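Dihydrofolate reductase: structure, please.
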Amino acid sequence: MGKVVMYSSVSVDGFIADENDQPGPLFDWLTTGDVPLDDSGFVKVSQVSYDYTRPYWDQIGVTVAGRHVFDMTDGWDGKPPAGIDHVVVVTHRPQPDGWDPEAPFHFVDGIEAAMVKAQDLAGDRIVEVAAGDVGGQMLAAGLVDEVRMDVVPVVLGSGKRYFGSVDAQHLLDDPDIIQGNRVVHLRYQVRR
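Here you go.
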């Protein structure tokens, strides 16, 4: 079974989007370098960020996200982002009308069912959990092994919190810290 990693870019005050679900400058670090991170030609980062991010991306087998993110991205047009094989969508609603049943998206009710499905699909690869409400619920349920944050030098002031509505203490080990261009990459192991 692969590792479960909660991940997102985040402001220094802990937000993954503003109150209007807009990321603002949180993804600017993905376009301020000169090393292509993917085949799009649009995503270019510093060499340090590439050396940190690309190996991680290559290990991801499944991403778990909430229905809100799925709806906001229009389901990534049926193609999982960043070359990921499958997306598990946590939702209480069925897949959208007219959704291609061959698209590698799986709609499940609840975080436990999502994790079972994701781990089955990922095998020994990483299960990435999007930060926010779903990620916070999975952390609170003890389903997350590692927390990764790409901390961007901006204060949003309010918005969507990285850990969602988590209201209990969770201890993390000391971070691994990588300084990129306009970003600090942090990686914490979750204490058990």
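Notes: The two ends are 17 Å apart (CA to CA).
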